[in-house]
């Protein structure tokens, strides 16, 4: 008999109940007890959904009021000491302080970091997902202890409801790996022994509570690990297994590769592998895994929203079932945290596209059907199997998915399509003559404050309360305002301000063929913040210009150069749910051609400078180094395709938010943008050093001030940063700009900051 389970379930609630409750609590409108009650109710509902789908266990421990890693920090008693306030601050309130800082500063949409308060824990992406976790901090003084009973209470809650419980814990090695040393010279690996002691206590306590199975997540087994870390697995798990309930070691997101044998041989009762990301490994795992162990196959894609191809799933599962003599479990590939809750209520969604999808609830039901068929009870699920096969077949042959014109365009592309006509030096010379900008030209990254008036107008337009003419006039008025302000400030290269854009991906997706949008397809990004990624279901093409009218209007208001503003192909892909029926690189290239059309049209409309934002290039890197090269080649090629349809006279900019650039500098250079603007101020310009050492050839605008805070930077500060920049990069190649877009700021601080920035540029120019 096959068993079914899930590695985790979305915690926000189908209507984002948790988000709204959290925000009420933070505003002081509901107290901790009310918030706890809402959390308990959500857990209860989510467990019931798991029972309704016939899962053999409900999963306990996946719930969190902010982030599951933060829960572990409290469970393991390793909150950094700066959160020790005098007096008895309740656990939950310390938890939120740790997550949000004391004077919380709202995160900035689009950037990969949220809270920028020095007090809060740092936040970073959970593997290659768009979920952010709070980074544990480790130092020589870190001590662990079993410090929270929250998990045990949740177990008791589920047991009281009569559910068979499987607890999920983040494994000790992954927990340690995902944290960060806060002291130079200290290696967090040294903490392993003391950490294991507390894990043992937790496991003993769970056993004592009557928990039969604990799913212990060690996703780092899918990473390139240092030898010492790999070697630590065996002894750590020997130590843990001693007194523990049955352990199901869960891995996901990438192939185990050199760790297959290690994972199979650890002294645990079962192993979960991701058969969606690493299908080729499955048979090897079935070979290596001893028969007395449970093999849990992650067969339903937990990272994407497509309905499972049941026949492909059987084709994978049947040989494994034959080979593995022990118990077989089936599950989603990873936690369902990364998909929306349910398709129910998606009335706006195109019916055909909807029939191709499965969100969390539907995925649980797929497990029920798969299990029945595997166990020889096909007849009981005949109708479901027919529907599943029909949906997959329809999607495979739909003309909305496959377009001959798009395929032809890619097939016809030739070697030079991703190259500008001339090399950078020649383009630079032509552009210098054309634009006659002063040295150290000033510009901004694109967006200006998204005031409540702008958002209200956009919402009214969407609801049909504001007609197209009235809406256009309102947006044009905003553009005019932004242009006048920039002219008055003395900025050299202007932007229109992006007032008409809700989001830098959605805005383009809505105008491109091949994209669909859900009404309620929210996925947690961090804390209470959710995103609603577009769904790329078909070949991508651009039926009509997307930004030309707004940009040309903005250019008509000024004699200064107006920079056109686009989102790049990699970023559009990265922040969407993508097709699983063709390689990501093909979809990226299709988007690249659509963006290229827009770039060409902008040039034709007289726009001489065009920025193609690619903040997501770095985060798209595969988890294993072996995949980097081909990913980066595809990503940089896609960018160049989008940028290379124009003449040498047209200046292409790109922009990236804060990221670790140093190990991908050759590829950033290979993008061959005439100008790149990057977020650097919070690294005190240190980030630029790598560009200097690498002798990055093209022009660079290192951000001179942080846009996450309303604080107005002084002219002196920015002069100092630019002097640092000029010491590592030739001043003739430098631009001056803020770190990122200004949409989350208000006008007063924006104007004050930009005035100081322009003053800094003038001062520096006078020294040249
Ligand atoms: N052009 C965008 C803006 O200014 C860039 C946003 C981003 O880098 N995330 O808002
Ligand atoms: Zn940015």
Automatic annotation (TrEMBL):
One of its GO terms (biological process) is methylation. L-methionine binds at residues 445-447, 498, 613. Its EC number is 2.1.1.14. Signal peptide: none annotated. GO terms for molecular function: 5-methyltetrahydropteroyltriglutamate-homocysteine S-methyltransferase activity. InterPro entries: Cbl-indep_Met_Synth_N, Cobalamin-indep_Met_synthase, Met_Synth_C/arc, UROD/MetE-like_sf. L-homocysteine binds at residues 445-447, 498, 613. It catalyses: 5-methyltetrahydropteroyltri-L-glutamate + L-homocysteine = tetrahydropteroyltri-L-glutamate + L-methionine. Catalyzes the transfer of a methyl group from 5-methyltetrahydrofolate to homocysteine resulting in methionine formation. This is 5-methyltetrahydropteroyltriglutamate--homocysteine methyltransferase. The gene is metE.
């Amino acid at each position: 008999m096959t068993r079914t389970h899930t590695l985790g379930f979305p915690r926000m609630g189908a209507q984002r109940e948790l988000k709204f409750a959290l925000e009420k609590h933070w505003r002081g409108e509901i107290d901790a007890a009310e918030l706890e009650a809402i959390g308990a109710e959500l857990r209860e509902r989510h467990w019931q959904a798991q029972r309704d789908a016939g899962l053999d266990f409900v999963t306990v421990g996946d719930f969190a009021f902010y982030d599951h890693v933060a829960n572990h920090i409290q469970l393991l008693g390793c909150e950094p000491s700066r959160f020790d306030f005098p007096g008895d601050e309740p656990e939950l309130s310390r938890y939120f302080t740790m997550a949000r800082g004391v004077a919380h500063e709202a995160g900035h949409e689009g950037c990969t970091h949220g809270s920028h308060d020095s007090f809060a824990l740092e936040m970073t992406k959970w593997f290659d997902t768009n979920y952010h976790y709070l980074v544990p901090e480790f130092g020589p003084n870190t001590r662990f202890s079993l410090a929270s009973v929250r998990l045990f209470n949740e177990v008791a809650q589920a047991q009281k409801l009569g559910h068979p419980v499987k607890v999920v814990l983040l494994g000790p090695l992954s927990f340690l790996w995902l944290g960060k040393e806060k002291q130079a010279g200290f290696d967090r690996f040294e903490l392993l022994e003391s950490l294991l002691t507390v894990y043992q206590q937790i496991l003993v306590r769970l056993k004592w509570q009557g928990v039969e199975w604990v799913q212990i997540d060690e996703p780092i087994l899918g990473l390139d690990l240092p030898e010492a870390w790999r070697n630590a697995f065996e002894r750590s798990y020997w130590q843990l297994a001693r007194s523990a309930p049955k352990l199901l070691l869960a891995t996901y997101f990438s192939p185990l590769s050199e760790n297959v044998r290690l994972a199979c041989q650890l002294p645990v009762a079962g192993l979960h592998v991701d058969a969606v990301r690493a299908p080729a490994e499955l048979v090897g795992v079935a070979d290596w895994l001893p028969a007395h162990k449970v093999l849990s196959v992650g067969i339903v894609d937990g990272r994407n929203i497509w309905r499972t191809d049941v026949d492909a799933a059987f084709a994978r599962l049947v040989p494994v079932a034959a080979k593995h003599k022990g118990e077989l479990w089936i599950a989603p590939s990873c936690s369902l945290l990364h998909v929306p809750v349910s398709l129910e209520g998606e009335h706006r969604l195109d019916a055909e596209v909807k029939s191709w999808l499965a969100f969390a609830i539907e995925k649980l039901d797929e497990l029920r059907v798969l299990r029945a068929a595997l166990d020889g009870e096909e007849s009981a699920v005949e109708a479901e199997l027919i529907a599943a096969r029909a949906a997959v077949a329809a999607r495979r042959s739909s003309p909305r998915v496959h377009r001959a014109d798009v395929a032809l365009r890619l097939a016809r592309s030739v070697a030079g399509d991703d190259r500008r006509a001339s090399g950078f030096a020649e383009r630079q010379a032509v552009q210098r003559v054309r634009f006659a900008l002063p040295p150290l030209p000033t510009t901004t990254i694109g967006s200006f404050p998204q005031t409540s008036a702008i958002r209200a107008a956009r919402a009214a337009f969407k609801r049909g309360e504001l007609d197209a003419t009235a809406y256009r006039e309102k947006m044009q008025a905003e553009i005019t305002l932004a242009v006048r302000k920039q002219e008055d400030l003395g900025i050299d290269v202007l932007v229109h301000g992006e007032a008409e854009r809700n989001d830098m991906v959605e805005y383009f997706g809505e105008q491109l063929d091949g994209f669909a949008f859900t009404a309620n397809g929210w996925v947690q990004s961090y804390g209470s913040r959710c995103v609603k990624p577009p769904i790329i279901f078909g070949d991508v093409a651009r039926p009509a210009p997307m930004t030309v009218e707004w940009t040309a209007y903005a250019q008509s208001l000024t004699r200064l150069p107006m920079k056109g503003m686009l989102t790049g192909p990699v970023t559009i892909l990265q922040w969407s749910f993508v097709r699983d029926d063709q390689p990501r690189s093909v979809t990226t290239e299709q988007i690249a051609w659509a963006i290229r059309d827009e770039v060409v049209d902008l040039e034709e409309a007289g726009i001489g400078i065009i920025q193609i934002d690619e903040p997501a290039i770095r985060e798209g890197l595969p988890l294993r180094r072996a995949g980097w090269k081909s990913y980066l080649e595809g990503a940089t090629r896609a960018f160049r395709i989008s940028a290379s349809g124009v003449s040498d006279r047209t200046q292409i900019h790109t922009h990236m938010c804060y990221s670790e650039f140093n190990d991908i500098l050759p590829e950033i250079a290979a993008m061959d943008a005439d100008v790149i603007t990057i977020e650097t101020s919070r690294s005190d310009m240190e980030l630029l050093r790598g560009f200097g050492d690498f002798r990055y050839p093209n022009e660079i605008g290192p951000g001179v001030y942080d846009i996450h805070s309303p604080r107005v930077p002084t002219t002196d500060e920015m002069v100092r940063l630019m002097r640092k920049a000029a010491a590592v990069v030739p001043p003739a190649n430098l631009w001056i700009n803020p770190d990122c877009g200004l949409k989350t700021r208000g006008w007063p601080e924006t104007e004050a900051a930009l005035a100081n920035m322009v003053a800094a540029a003038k001062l520096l120019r006078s020294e040249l």
